[in-house]
Amino acid sequence: MPAIAILGGQWGDEGKGKVVDYLAQRAHTVARFGGGSNAGHTVINQYGEFRMHLVPSGVFYPHVTCLIGNGVVVDPKVLLEEIDLLRGRGVDTSRLFLSDRAHLVMPYHVLLDGLEEEARGAGALGTTRRGIGPSYVDKAARLGIRAGELLDREPFRKRLAFVLEQKNALLTRVYGREPLSLEGVFNEYCAYGERLRPFIRDTGLLLEAALERGEWVVLEGAQGALLDLDFGTYPYVTSSSPTIGGALTGLGVSSRRLEQVLGVFKAYSTRVGEGPLPTEMEKEMGQRVRERGHEYGATTGRPRRCGWFDGVAARYASRLNGFTGLAITRLDVLDELPALKLCGAYKVGHETLEHFPASLPLLERCQPVYEELPGWQAPLRNIRRFEDLPPRARAYIKKIEEITSCPVVLVSVGPQREETILPRPLF
Question: What is the pLDDT of residue 125?
Answer without folding.
Answer: 72
